[in-house]
Structures are given as C-alpha cells and as structure tokens.
Specification:
The complex is a heterotrimer of chains A (262), B (291) and C (345).
Chain A: H1 2-6, E1 15-26, E2 29-40, E3 44-48, H2 55-63, E4 70-75, E5 78-79, H3 85-90, E6 93-96, H4 108-119, H5 134-146, H6 162-175, E7 180-184, H7 195-203, E8 210-214, H8 218-224, E9 227-232, E10 235-240, H9 242-247, H10 249-259
Parallel strand pairs in A: 3-8, 3-9, 6-7, 7-8
Antiparallel strand pairs in A: 1-2, 1-4, 4-5, 9-10
Chain B: H1 2-35, H2 42-58, H3 64-85, H4 95-116, H5 128-131, E1 133-135, E2 140-142, H6 143-165, H7 167-177, H8 179-184, H9 189-215, H10 221-224, H11 226-236, H12 241-261, H13 268-280
Antiparallel strand pairs in B: 1-2
Helix pairs in contact in B: 1-6, 1-7, 1-9, 1-11, 1-12, 2-3, 2-4, 2-9, 3-9, 6-7, 11-12
Chain C: H1 19-26, H2 36-47, H3 52-74, H4 83-98, H5 105-127, H6 132-152, H7 154-157, H8 183-205, H9 207-217, H10 219-224, H11 229-255, H12 265-278, H13 285-301, H14 305-322, H15 326-339, H16 341-344
The chains are: A alpha/beta (262), B mainly alpha (291), C mainly alpha (345).
C-alpha cells in the first residue's frame, strides 16, 4: 500500500506489474508463450493483436483466473503467481470483462456498493444493516457521479442501454481502487453513437492507476494509449509508442491492414 | 460351488436390472447433455410408457413386442407434444424453473394415471417363451433376465453405431461438445433436440415396460426411481451413452449384491459412492469436462 | 448521525440524498405491513383455537422455507436436499428424548440446530465446490445417504417406523406440551419462528446478505471483486442448515414423534415448492407460500387427494412458465403496473 501511495505524483516510471516468461498451454496449443511484459505506474498501455492472439488469456493469467504453465507474475516486485484471483484483487489488480458481468437484477448503485463493500472489508459483516455503511454508499454514489451515471443510479442494470452497462462494468472495477486496471475491450458491443461515453470515462480515470487496455478499435487505442504492445500468436510481436506502432510496416502488414482498421 | 452359483445368479440379476436402468436413463443423459435441461419428469415418461405397454397387453391383448412398439410410439408422440408446447419455453430458464416445472409434470402424470387407471399396481404377464428358465451350460437362469441383458447390449451397440456412424449422431456429438459452435456450423439444434427427446422418451417407455415385471408399476413409479435414474446419468456422464451403460450396470450389480448381503439399507453405499465419484469427477465417468 | 465526506452544511445535495442512496440506506427499516403476519398469528390463537394444530404445522413449514430461502433465494444455491438438515434436527430431538437423555425442549432445539449446522458445514465444505446439476445431485445423494443411515441404525432410530411418543419436558418447567390442545406448541413454535426470522432478516439486509445476493446474481463477478465466494457460501449454507435443523426439531417436538419422512425427497421437494410458490429471495415468500400451500393441502387434499396432486402439478407448471417470482412476485408486478404509478411519477 505504501508503494501505491508514493506514486500518486504521476511521472515516476516504476514498474507496477511485470511478467517473466509467462506461458500458458491448452493441450497442444500454446496460447501464451514466454511473455516478458512490464506495465509502469500510471501507464496508459494498449494491448492489440488479431483475434486469437492470446490477449484475453494473457489478462486471465494476470488476474489469476488461469494458472500459467510456466513463468511468473510480479506485482510491485512481489511474486503473485501462486495467488488466487480474490487475493490479487485485494492487492490492487482489477479488471473489466469483454462481455458484461454485472449483477443484472440489482440497481446500478448496488452493483458498485457490492464492490466497494468488498474492498473496505465490510462485506463479511452479518449483524448490522448494509444501509448503515453510509461511507460505502456515499463513495459508490460519488463514483457514479464522476462517471455521470448518477441519473441511472436507481435503475436496474438490466434496464440500461448497453453503453451505460459498460460504464457500470468500469465503475465496479474503479470502485476496487486498483493500482492496476485491466480493461478487456471496454467499448466492445457499444454502438458507435455511445462509444464517446466510454472514451470520456477512460480519459478521466485517476492518473496514478496503471491501465492496460485490450482494444480492437484503433481510434480508441491511438487516442487513449501512450504505449502499445502488439501480440501475435501468443507472443509479443512489437512494442512502442502509438506513432512507432503505426509507422511499423511489419505491424501494418500483420495486423492493421488485415484487421481493416486504421 | 454353491457360492459361485449364488454369485453368478446375483451378478446376472444385477446386470438385468442395470440394463433396465440403462434403457430408461439413456434418453435422459442425451437430452441433458444436449440442452442442459434438468428433466426430472423423465421417469414419468417411463411410467407412462410402462402403463401403455402393460395395458396394451392385459386389456387389448397385444403381443409383447407389439405392445413395446405401441408404448414407444405413444410416449415419443406425447413427449414431442410436451416438448413443443412447454419444455421449449424453458430452455433458457434457470435450473430452478426447470426443476419446478418437471416436478409439476411428475405430479400431473401421477394424478392422471391414478384417475384414469387407478392407484393399484399393474402386473406384466411375460410371454411363455420368456417366462421359463434357460440352461446356460453351467447353471439354469431366468430366461427373461438373459433376454434383458442381451437386448440392452444390442441397444447400446445400436445407439453407439448411430452416434458414431450417422450424420445425426455426429450432429448430436458436436452439440453436446459445444452447443454454440454447433449452432454456428448450421446444425438445427432445436430440431435435433426434438428428435432425441422423442427417441429418449420412447426408450424410457421401453424401459418402463421391460422393467415392470420386477420393478412393479404403480403411479408412484415416477418418483420412486427418480434418484436412481439421476444417479445413472450423472455417474455415467451427461451425453455419454456408453458411460450411462457402464454406470447403470455397475449400479444394478451393486444394488443387487448389497440388497442381498445387507438387506437393511445397503443402498447407502450407492449414495456414498456417487457422492465420492462426483466430487472426484463432477462430469461423471465418461462425461465431457466443462469448460 | 450523518456521516462520510459531506461537510456540515452542504451547498449542494450530498450523494446520500440521492434517491438511489436513500433506497439502500432505508431498505432494512421495518415497514408497517411487516407486523401483519405476526398479528395474524396472534389473531389465529384467539379466534380459531381449533386450528392451532394446523397453525403449528404452518409455523414449522414457514421456518423450514425461510431456512431454504437464505440458501436458495439469497445465495442462489440450487438444492433439492434440504430435508437432510430438517431430518438431522428432527432425529437429534427424537433420539435425545426417546432414549431419555435430554427432554428439555429449548436446549434440545439448540442442539438440533447445532447438529444440522455441523452436517451443513461438513457437506457444504465439499459440495459447494460444484455447481448446477452436479450440486443438485450431490444434495439429493447426501440426503438419501442420511435417510438410509437412519434406516440402517434401526436399533436406535426405529428404522422405517421411527420413534413414537417422544417425551418432551414442559417449556421452562411450566408449560406442558399437551396432545389434546395445541396452545403451548403453537405459542412455542411462534416464538421460535420469530427469533429465527429476526436472525434471517438481519442477515439478508447486512453487508453479508448483500454479498450473497451478488453471488446469486453473478458468481464470476464476485470472484473478480475479490470476494471469498466459497467461504461466504459455506457460511450461508451452514446457517441455513442450522435453521432447517431447528425447524425439524420443532416438528419432532410438536408432533411428539419422528420418522424417516423427515429425510425424504418428498419433504425436500415440498419445501422448495412452498418457497417458490410464495416467491424466493423475498423473505416473506416463505410465509405466503406456506399459507397458500398448506391451506390448499389442508382443505383440498383430505377431500380429494388426487385432484390436489393434479392441481398442484398444474400450478407448478404454470408458475415455472409464467410466474417465476411466485405469488409475491405477481403482487409486485401488479403493484408496479397499477398501484405504483403514483410513486413512479
């Protein structure tokens, strides 16, 4: 926690999250192979690559949903490879999913409250009403205001348009006050008329959070990211600033042209 | 020598009972594997078919084979009707709704049969050719039990051939494996399910008829043996025909042996073994691992 | 009383003044209508003394359904084996009383809860690793296993016939359980239900209860917000089991006998039906469902049992197809459509 606090200044380039020779096999298929990767504090880092390149598998390895076949995951220099998903969340790794995973029958505010209550350690309490934790409710409400979701706070998640639901997905992750935030295609499935909502929200993320974003939409990537890693067939193919990546002829050949973007 | 003969007798009896369990349960396994539908009313189809078969013989004086055929067709037809009208609406519902719905169907079947036929048990008169004893060379044994074992073996081979060698079998295997993929390949999953549902219910009817001679047949049948059908399916593995065959024979033999040597509550071991197996392999003996 | 980052006199409304926040803050408060079931229960005592036997049966059914609601309605644990705990509680009371070891009712009931809770904890630790159909099967098998065990231990449990004529000591040494009049049993059961209900109510409105709802709504998301899901489920399952055990103990005490029916699939299915009929995950669904089910059964089943079974079957099919949230859910939907317009606009 102390390490986290020191970095709120912004420009420090300290590695928050690192992988060393991280690999994962599914049977004979090497979905992720020997990835050495660094995510700096305060990073705005995009991970791109064609479908099936292993991006989501990579995120699942970082969050502990999958265990690696080989290699290590380090958070702030500490080996967390053996830690379960819930423990990694407590250590400050939060994520959003490519397909919404929300508490659909509950109100927007309650969705965020569940995450916040879990973070502040209230969620195990059995003998007082949740409504008495006004600190949790106030913080959740405040978070919704920063995401401009306050007008929908009362609505059931299932009643919201998809773009707004994606924002709730983001709100839950931010409510965990992560040091590292992994966004798996945050704009996926959002109609283009609504996608600016997501982009605005991304741009207003707290500066100190290290953000890794998987994204297909090159407009989003080049607007948001300060660094880009290209993954192809489970391995890192290229890495650099958005300009470098855009100018890289091999990347254009392998990915950009083929995907039909940019 | 006596012991060996005893044991052989128990073993064959268990195989015969297990065969009936298999014939009833195989359809449940395939439909559950295909659609993930928790169909607790499967036993009610077996009961319905059993009644049709027994009544066809006792009241309409059909022959055994003809009665079995009538039972198969009647039950398959009824199941298609129910599938089209009701089951279909609940494919995407939660397990809880499916459980509730099929428990409701069980009650309706029980009440319906009580009203139409009466609450008393029905008895099945075997044709004389199957009623006697058969000389197996090393011992005499009930012809009917041997008949059941052979029929069960032929059925499992038949279904296996259909699964492995025909187009529809390949489609079923692909759908059990990965439903979304199968749909995207253009397999008409709904139609496939109707067909297998009808066939599975028809098989259950045959099982209900073949087993009536020693399991009995009364309106409580649908509930009484439900746990056994479910155990056979979950131990064998959803969607696995051969798995359910092995599981059924295993349960049949175990049940016969235990009931003989531990008449009071020998079935406790079956439940215990089922729990242990499912904890070890939640997908059953030959089931596909969930991904 | 007001908390958090808000200054003493905010120029703008604080986050806690937002209607959504007010809903969450005030959700656990008692409403006037929550006294109705209890008033009705007291009313029954004075108005219909002849029905107190039926009333006691009803109270036990409510408690059992309430126990199931905690596991199934709130945490989303799909089980068809909750009679395992009901039976454990019933046999705990039955064995202690029949063999003259312990007949004091209140402590026996506590022991029934503890015994069932232990069974719930041990089975929950292994079972709750699985989900869906496998979990359903495992709960059924665990129940069947216990039923067979009770059957096998014939010398102690009386096997299929059970243990008749249980001696139950007077409550507080004063109030006797009379086989002719059900006054004592009724009041006793009502107080036990009230205490258990207050516990369940506290739990479901607590942060713990909120996290159970989260697990029901989206298990994977709960993992991803760092929730120790398995531990929460096991705790919930254990409490639910203990309450079901108390219901079973109460059943044994008020009936003064215990038999294998306390363990069987019929009972597990019935409590599920009662809960879903009323509406699960709603706290009062257990009340509404038990009243509806038992009243129908009491007045219809004894006259024409087959018609009752047919009617029940049709009812279940209709609920599964059209009214998945039970009677209370239907009421809520109607309220929203016709009565709630004022509040909405």
């Amino acid at each position: 926690m102390a390490a986290l606090r020191r970095q709120t200044g912004g420009v420090v380039t300290e590695t928050r999250l690192e992988t060393q020779a991280l690999s994962r096999d599914f049977g004979a298929l090497r979905a992720v192979q020997k990835i050495d990767f660094k995510l700096d504090a305060g990073a705005r880092h995009a991970l791109i690559g064609p479908n099936g390149a292993g991006k989501t598998t990579f995120v699942n390895l970082l969050t502990g949903v999958l265990t690696p076949t080989q290699g290590r995951v380090l958070l702030g220099g500490r080996d967390i490879t053996a830690k379960a998903q819930a423990e990694r969340v407590k250590l400050g790794i939060a994520r959003t999913f490519q397909i919404n995973r929300l508490f659909r029958g509950l109100s927007v505010l309650e969705n965020v409250c569940i995450a916040v209550a879990e973070r502040v350690g209230a969620a195990a309490s059995m003998f007082y009403p949740a409504g008495r934790r006004t600190d949790v409710i106030a913080e959740s409400m405040h978070l919704l205001e920063t995401l401009r979701l306050e007008d929908q706070a009362r609505h059931r998640v299932s009643e919201l348009p998809y773009g707004r639901q994606r924002l709730v997905e983001l709100a839950i992750a931010i409510g965990l006050k992560p040091g590292v935030l992994l966004l798996d295609e945050p704009a996926a499935g959002v109609p283009s008329a609504e996608s600016h909502i997501i982009l605005d929200a991304l741009e207003r993320l707290p500066e100190h959070i290290a953000v890794l974003i998987i994204e297909h939409d090159m407009d989003v990537v080049f607007r948001f990211a300060r660094r880009v890693t290209v993954m192809v067939s489970g391995a890192i193919f290229a890495e650099g600033t958005p300009k470098e990546i855009e100018a890289n002829p091999e990347v254009r050949a392998v990915y950009l042209g083929q995907a039909g973007h940019g | 020598m006596d012991f060996a003969a005893d044991f052989a007798g128990i073993f064959l009896g268990g195989l015969a009972a297990g065969t009936v369990l298999f014939i009833v349960s195989v359809g449940l396994s395939v439909t559950m594997g295909l659609m993930g539908f928790v169909n607790l009313a499967h036993g009610a189809f077996a009961m319905f078919g059993g009644y049709v078969i027994v009544l066809a013989m006792n009241r309409a004086h059909f022959g055994f084979a003809a009665a079995l055929a009538v039972g198969f067709v009647a039950t398959a037809a009824l199941s298609v009707l129910l599938e089209r009208l009701l089951y279909r609406r609940l494919y995407r519902a939660g397990e809880l709704d499916q459980v509730l719905f099929t428990i409701g169907l069980i009650f309706i079947f029980i009440a319906g049969i009580t009203i139409v036929v009466g609450p008393e048990g029905q008895t099945l008169e075997l044709p004389p050719a199957l009623g006697g004893q058969l000389n197996l060379g090393f011992m005499q044994y009930r012809t009917y039990s041997i008949f059941l074992i052979v029929v069960g073996f032929l059925i499992v081979i038949g279904i296996w051939l259909v699964f492995e060698r025909t187009r529809i079998g390949a489609q079923i295997r692909a759908t059990v494996d990965n439903r979304r993929m199968a749909e995207s390949l253009g397999i008409n999953v709904d139609r496939l399910f109707t067909i297998t549902f009808a066939f599975g219910s028809g098989m259950a009817a045959i099982g209900g008829g073949l087993g009536a001679e020693f399991l009995g047949l009364d309106p409580q049948y649908a509930l009484k043996y439900l746990v056994y059908f479910l155990i056979a399916v979950s131990v064998g593995g959803l969607g696995s025909v051969v798995g359910v065959y092995y599981a059924s024979l295993l349960i049949g033999v175990l049940d016969f042996t235990l009931k003989l040597y531990l008449p009071k509550g020998g079935t406790i071991f079956i439940y215990a073994l089922t729990i242990l197996l499912l904890l070890w392999r939640p997908q059953g003996l030959l089931g596909r691992k969930e991904t | 009383m007001n908390v958090a980052a808000s200054p003493a006199r905010p120029a703008v409304a604080t986050p806690l003044d937002h209607p959504a926040a007010r809903v969450l803050i005030g959700r656990h408060r008692l409403r006037w209508w929550e006294t109705l079931p209890w008033l009705a229960a007291v009313g029954l005592y004075f108005a219909f003394p002849a029905y107190l036997g039926f009333g006691t049966e009803l109270l036990v059914a409510i408690l059992f359904a309430l126990a199931l609601d905690l596991a199934l309605g709130y945490a989303g644990i799909i089980t068809l084996g909750h009679a395992a705990f009901f039976g454990t509680g019933a046999y705990t009371v039955g064995l202690l009383a029949f063999w003259g070891i312990w007949t004091e009712p209140i402590s026996s009931l506590v022991l029934a809860g503890v015994a069932a809770g232990v069974v719930g904890l041990l089975s929950g630790l292994v079972l709750l690793r699985t989900r869906g159909l496998t979990l359903l099967m495992l709960t059924i098998c665990t129940m069947a296993l216990l039923e067979q065990a009770a059957n096998m231990a014939h010398d102690y449990t009386g096997g299929f016939d059970g243990l008749p004529s249980l001696p139950i000591a007077p409550v507080f040494g004063v109030f006797e359980f009379s086989p002719l009049y059900d006054n004592t049993q009724y009041v006793y059961a009502l107080i036990v239900l009230l205490i258990c209900f207050l516990l369940v109510r506290t739990l479901v409105y607590s942060p713990f209860g909120q996290s159970l709802t989260g697990i029901r709504e989206n298990l994977l998301r709960m993992h991803a917000v760092g929730s120790p899901v398995r531990r929460r489920l096991v705790i919930c399952y254990t409490i639910s089991a203990a309450l079901a055990g108390i219901a079973g103990g109460l059943w044994a005490q008020t009936n003064a006998y215990v038999n294998l029916s306390t363990f069987d699939l019929d009972r597990a299915a019935t409590v599920l039906i009662v809960l879903i009929l009323g509406g699960y995950g709603r706290l009062y669904g257990a009340f509404v469902g038990a009243v509806a089910y038992l009243a129908l059964e009491h007045f219809l089943a004894r006259i024409y049992p087959t018609a009752w079974q047919l009617g029940l079957g049709l009812l279940l099919v209709l609920i599964a197809l059209f009214a998945r949230n039970g009677i209370l859910g239907l009421g809520e939907a109607l309220w929203r459509r016709y009565g709630g317009k004022r509040a909405a606009s």
